[in-house]
Structures are given as structure tokens and as C-alpha cells.
Amino acid sequence: MKLKNIMLASVLAWLPATSAMAAGQVEVLHWWTSSGEAKSAKVLKQMMEQQGHSWKDFAVAGGGGESAMTVLKMRAVSGNPPTAAQLKGHDIQEWGRLGFLTSLDDVAQQEHWDKVLPPVVANIMKYNNHYVAVPINVHRVNWLWINPKVFQAAGAKVPTTLADFFIAADKIKAAGFIALAHGGQPWQDTTLFESIALAVLGSADYRKAFVDLDMAIINSNKMVEVFKQFKRMKAYIDPQAKGRHWNSATEMVIDGQAAMQFMGDWAKGEFAQAGELPGKDYLCVPAPGTQHQFTFNIDSLAFFKLKGTEADNIAQHDLAQTLLMPSFQRVFNLNKGSIPVRLDMDMSAFDQCALDSMTAFKQASLSGDLVPSFSQNLATTADVQSAIVDVVSEFFNQTDPDPTLAPSRLARAIKSAI
Q: What's the half-sphere exposure (Cβ side, CA atoms, 13 Å) at 280?
């Protein structure tokens, strides 16, 4: 606890001084409501208050952000948007086209964002070549989280392929444990499906299917195999999974009720909050069959045009600047389980999971195995993503779905959404 206080004091000491005359209010819409995420949001609140601004929290529960988007649309249409909102991928472009977002180019030039951000990230944050959003981190989605004590009790080996996964899961289930912790929500179903798709299709065909929307790949036998392997996962999930939040599923792994969970590295924040140590109390390994691949998700805040006071505009500027400060990048990502988005960060404070993630991110960006997550709305438009989620979740929740029919159903849904 003492070390955490020292770190926070170090962060606050680096903040720019803000006069009381310039104090404004920032209101941030987000869905960082799990324990690790809420801790990260609290750090941002403290940093803004240290600069003399007031913080109005606008947290909307729901890990996928669907509820938050509904609220944001109502606020924006009524002419009362928040200072910033958690948006990403194509959603940033859509809000930019609608004319709601404000330019951050002055902050970007002042802070040299084009130099410290990877181009693939910087481009997502721009609309018409102008910065309108700020990236906060990079998440790797294709992780498998493991309780090694459960594996040891069941005599199972950590899987590196899908075939290995099912062998291990059978042993774990036979030993009386839940093999796979899962939350029965549509976005979680799709997160699981995504890792299986990456393993079966490979990076090139994954990109063709879910970024290029290539119907030949979507309707292929390889996609049938994706659905077959996806269907097999259901047998290892407990009957009470429906409606469970992702962090509750993570708690099942932490507590030893379950052996594994497919989830992005935001799950690591939950292990950290529980005092768990990577490599000892839990393991973070690539999703089976995706060792050299990296499915990325980026948390970002998009900034809205305000009708408030000049002080509120100053506060908005300071918020944008603060998000990419190395001090905030370090504390936020240590809490949340992700890796910093800046290329010039000192990673010495990060654990082995984060170091492995950063190494994989850099390698995948060179090998062509860096692919956007469609489950997290980074690969395609919101309408297409919604269509994919609906088909995947409906399939997974049927009593005995037919994998041979699923690709054509997916193709029709995507075509209707384009």
C-alpha cells in the first residue's frame, strides 16, 4: 500500500499547475466499473482535481459498453454531450462524420503525439486527419487466463493448441472443476469465438473475413470448422453462466472454482486487485493456437464540442494532455492490465504478462499477425459488429446448433448490415 501511495504522489508531482481562475469541469462517460478499472478511473480523477478542475463521473456499467452508447446518444442529440466519452475504432469515425467531435490538434502538436504513438494507433484516433480522440492503452484480447493449482490438481497441461485445450478441459471437468469460466453475455460469447476464429483461420483469413468482409472466407469450410470448435466450448462452461459479468468469471478462476478464462488482458487488473502474482498464482498465455498473433483492442476517449465556459474548454485540453502523460500511462495500465500506448515508455515497473504482451505486439506488427478485434469493435462498423455478435451469441445459446449452417447465416447478417 505504501508503494502505491508513493507512485500516486509521484504522478501528481509531475502535473502542470493550473490556476484557480482556469478551473473547469470535466465529465467523462466510460464503463470502467470493475474493481481494477474503477481504480484506474480514480487515478485520472485525482490527476484532474490536482490541476484544479472538478470531475463529474459518468460511469455506465456493462463491460461491452452497449448501455453507455445508448446514454451517450441521448445526451449528444439533446445538445448536452460530456467532455469526453469512451469510444473506439469505427465509432470515432462515425461520431466525427456527425460533427460532434472537436479537434485536439493543438494538444497533439504540443505533445508530439505523432512521434510517440504507433501509426496504426494514431490513425484510429483521427478523423479527416485531425486528432479527435486520445488512446489510453493497448489490450491484447487473445489471452487465456489459468489457475495453475486447478491444473495441477487435475493433472492437466497448459494448452498451446485447440486440441490441447480440449484434452486439458476434459481432465479438469473429470476432476470436478469448471473447466472454462465464462459470462453468458453476447460480447463475451464473441470474444471467445474471436480467439477460436484466429486459431482456425490464421491472421490473413481472419483479416479477410472480419475486416475486409470477404464472403468467400465467411462462407468457407474453414468457417464451418470455427463454429464446430466454438460449439465444443459450451460443454465446459457451467449452467449458471448466463448473464454473468466478465469480472465475475475472472473471480471464478482466482478462487479456484474454474481453471481457465478466455478474456482480454483487462482481466489482469482483477488478479492484481486480489493480490495474485503472475507466474505463481495465475498464468497468462496466448489463446490456444494463437501464440504469434495479437488481437488488439484500444481504449480511447473521444472529445466532444462543448457549449460550456472557457474554463471547461481549458479543462478539456488538460484532460487530453493528461491521458498521454507517461506518469498516467504507467499508473493506468498497471492498474488495468493493459500496456501503454506510447512507444517511449519505461516498462521496468510492469510484470511479465505485460512484458510478454509488449513483445508480442511489436513482433506481430512486423509479421502481419497484428489484427483488430471485431469483438471489441475495432475491426468494422458498429452495425456489422452488432450483426456478428447477434449471430455468434444466438448460435452459442442454441441447444444443438448446426455449425454447417452458421457461416451462411453470418454472411447474410453481415450483408444486411453493410
A: 5
For residue 133, the cross-strand partners are 302
> Which SS3 state, helix, strand or coil, does residue 34 take?
coil
Q: Which triple of cell numbers denotes residue 96?
A: 466525427
Q: How far apart are CA 417 and CA 414, in angstroms?
A: 5
Predicted TM-score (pTM) of this structure: 0.81
How far apart are the C-alpha atoms of 180 and 261, rounded to whole Å?
Answer: 6
All three cell numbers of 375, joined, read: 469483438
Closest CA to 333 of 299, 284, 370: 299
Give the three cell numbers for residue 106: 493543438
- As a whole number of angstroms, the distance between CA 372 and CA 162 comes to 21
Distance CA 399, CA 397 (A): 6
| Other CB atoms within 10 Å distance of the CB of residue 240 | 9
pLDDT of 105-159, one tens digit each?
999 999 999 999 888 889 899 999 999 999 999 999 999 999 999 999 999 999 9
Residue 135 CA to residue 344 CA, distance in Å, equals 15
| N- to C-terminal Cα separation, the chain | 50
CA dihedral (101, 78, 377, 260) in degrees, to 10, reads 120
Interatomic CA distance for residues 262 and 140, integer angstroms: 11
Provide the 10 A C-beta neighbour count for residue 32: 26
C-alpha cell at 184: 453468458
Residues 195/290, Cβ–Cβ less than 8 Å:
yes
How many Cα atoms sit within 13 Å of 149 on the Cβ side? 12
Q: What is the pLDDT of residues 186-235, one digit of tens each?
A: 999 999 999 999 999 999 999 999 999 999 999 999 999 999 999 999 99
